[in-house]
# Entry
Amino acid sequence: MAKQDKPPFRMQLMLRLDRGSATAADTLRRYAPLADEIGADGMDVDVQRADLLLSGYRVAVNEERAMHDMAHGLLRRFGWTEQDLAYRRYHRWAETGGPPPGPPANHLMIVAADQEMGWEGATHGVGLTPDRTLDVDPADSDCRQSSWRTCSG
# Structure
């Protein structure tokens, strides 16, 4: 099958990171360079966790292979093996069974773009109270290191 004959598979990826006892603002500052490095679409930080969110697509023979291709770099980056990512054909998602050998990642999940992320995705945006507004000013070092931030001053 030629590459142009393979369909594009659209997916959403969620990488759960260790929040620790840091404030939400400190967590955002700590993981902003990582979000920039992996090309994250967004970051969700709440009282118990920090998630980097990515969307994209891969051209592959099937959905399982597309999900493995999308996850490959992150699996290696955080110490998981390819076998740690299990694909669930009937649910159209893949996830790691446990945390990698070291921090900061805890969990990786990929779903087909037209699927919901289930209870994990449903809780995005509900962890801060009362209005989930968080204004974070970048530290001076963030302005020099990050390419996705605009700093003034």
Remarks:
- Residues 5 and 124 are 36 Å apart (CA to CA).
- Residues 125-134, 148-153 have pLDDT under 50 and may be disordered.
- DSSP finds four helices and six strands in the chain.
- The radius of gyration is 17 Å.
